[in-house]
User: What shape does this take?
Amino acid sequence: MFDLIASVLAWFYSLFPSYGFAVGMLTITVMVVVTPLTLKSTRSMLQMQRLQPELKAIQAEYKDDRQKMNEQLMAFYQENGINPLG
Assistant: This one.
């Protein structure tokens, strides 16, 4: 990983012989690569917050039966297109 970052930094430095500019370009490149993951995670978090009352209702209804609660939660996640892991 370090070698990849160092290579990209060296490449930017070869294009623009200024380490400040090269570091800036590297930062922008990393942000562009990471942004889709961040957006997906943020959307998932907002969707989970929006559906939190329904999740709490399912948990309260099946609080004594863990297996049934998990089945209902998974069905709820599938109905609403939610990935519980993120």
DSSP finds four helices and no strands in the chain.
